[in-house]
Amino acid sequence: MTDSELVGRASDPQTPPEQLGSLATQSPEAARLAALNPNAPLELLLALSRQHPEAVLSNPAIPLLELQSLRFWDQFQETWPQLCGAANCPMTLANYVLNAARRKEPLEALVANTALPLVWRQRAFSAASNRVGLNWGLVRAVLGDEFAKLWTDARSRQPLSQAQLRFLYDL
Question: Which member of 13, 16, 80, 118 lies 3.0 to 4.6 Å from 106 by CB, making a disulfide possible if both were Cys?
Answer without folding.
Answer: 80
